[in-house]
Specification:
This protein is of the alpha+beta class. It is about 40% helix and about 20% strand. It is built from 9 helices and 9 strands. It has a 5-stranded antiparallel sheet with strand order 2-1-9-8-7, sandwiched between helices. Helix 2 packs antiparallel against helix 3 and helix 2 packs parallel to helix 4. The two termini are about 30 Å apart.
C-alpha cells in the first residue's frame, strides 16, 4: 500500500507542469468568435464560429488579397467621381486624384476607406467592378471559406449576398499571411500620401488593438449598424502566428486580446 502511494505521488508530481499549462477558456462578449493558429489552421477556441454574420469592413482583408494578387503596386490610378460618394469610412479621396495602387491599399487598411475599396475594385477589375467581386469570392473558396459570399469590396451591408463567419474570416486571413506583402499592409499604422496633383492625405489607424497588445501585427476593424463592432486581430509571439476574429462585440479589443491570450497559452510548449 505504501509503495502504491509513493508511485501515485510521483505520477501526480510529473503531471503538475502539464496541468499548470491548462488555459482557462476565454469569456467573450462577441456574438461569434474564433482564434486560429495560422500554420495549421487549427481552431484553438470558438464561440458559434460557423454562424452566418455581416463581416462589415473586415471584408477589406479579401479586397487587399485580390488586389495584391492581380494588381501592380506602383501603377498609377485616377479616382473617378463614382467612388467618392460612398457612405461610411473614407480616406477622403477626391475625383481626379491620381495616386498609386500601393497608396490606395494603405488607405483601404489604415483608414478603412470605402472610397479606396471602390477605386481598387474598378481599377484592378479592368473597369469591371463585378469581375473584382467574383475574384473575391474565388479567393474565399480557395481558402476553404464555404459559408462566405461577397457582393461588394468594402463591407457595407447586403442582407442576402454579403456574409461570412468568424471561422471563415480566420481561414481567409490565415491564407493571407502566406504573402509577406499582405502581412506588411495588415500591420500598417500610419502613412502620409501625396497625390500626383500635390494634395496631401494623412492616414492614422484607429485600430487600438495594434498599440495595446504585445506582438500585434494586424489586421482589420469593422463596423456597421447591422454588423456591430467587429475585429480581425493577429499577433505573433515566439514564432507562433495567431488570428482572432470577433464579430458583433461591444468590447471587440478586449475580446480579441482574451482570445489571443488563450491561444498563446494553449500553444505554449509543455515543460
Amino acid at each position: 500500500m505504501r509503495n502504491f502511494s509513493v508511485w501515485a505521488f510521483l505520477v501526480l508530481f510529473l503531471l503538475l507542469p502539464a496541468i499548470g499549462h491548462t488555459a482557462t477558456p476565454p469569456a467573450v462578449l462577441a456574438e461569434t468568435a474564433c482564434v486560429m493558429e495560422v500554420g495549421s489552421k487549427k481552431v484553438l477556441f470558438g464561440k458559434d464560429e460557423s454562424k452566418i454574420m455581416y463581416p462589415a469592413s473586415t471584408t477589406k482583408i479579401v479586397t487587399l488579397m485580390v488586389a495584391l494578387e492581380r494588381g501592380k503596386l506602383d501603377s498609377a490610378v485616377t479616382v473617378n467621381s463614382r467612388a467618392v460618394d460612398y457612405e461610411g469610412s473614407s480616406m477622403e479621396l477626391q475625383a481626379g486624384d491620381r495616386l498609386t495602387l500601393d497608396d490606395l491599399l494603405g488607405g483601404l487598411m489604415i483608414a478603412s476607406g470605402n472610397d479606396a475599396a471602390e477605386v481598387i475594385a474598378e481599377y484592378v477589375g479592368g473597369g469591371k467592378r463585378e469581375q473584382f467581386i467574383s475574384w473575391m469570392n474565388e479567393k474565399a473558396v480557395q481558402a476553404g471559406a464555404l459559408k462566405t459570399h461577397f457582393s461588394n469590396p468594402h463591407g457595407l451591408p447586403d442582407p442576402y449576398n454579403h456574409y461570412s463567419t468568424a471561422y471563415d474570416l480566420a481561414l481567409i486571413t490565415s491564407r493571407g499571411f502566406a504573402d509577406p506583402q499582405f502581412a506588411g499592409f495588415a500591420n500598417l499604422r500610419q502613412r502620409d500620401i501625396i497625390t500626383a496633383n500635390g494634395r496631401k492625405i494623412r492616414l492614422q489607424t484607429h485600430n487600438k488593438f495594434l498599440s495595446q497588445y504585445n506582438g500585434a501585427n494586424g489586421v482589420k476593424t469593422g463596423y456597421t449598424n447591422d454588423a456591430g463592432l467587429c475585429l480581425v486581430a493577429s499577433a505573433k509571439r515566439n514564432g507562433v502566428q495567431l488570428v482572432a476574429v470577433v464579430l458583433n462585440s461591444d468590447e471587440r479589443v478586449r475580446d480579441a486580446m482574451a482570445l489571443l491570450d488563450y491561444g498563446f497559452q494553449t500553444m505554449a510548449p509543455k515543460s
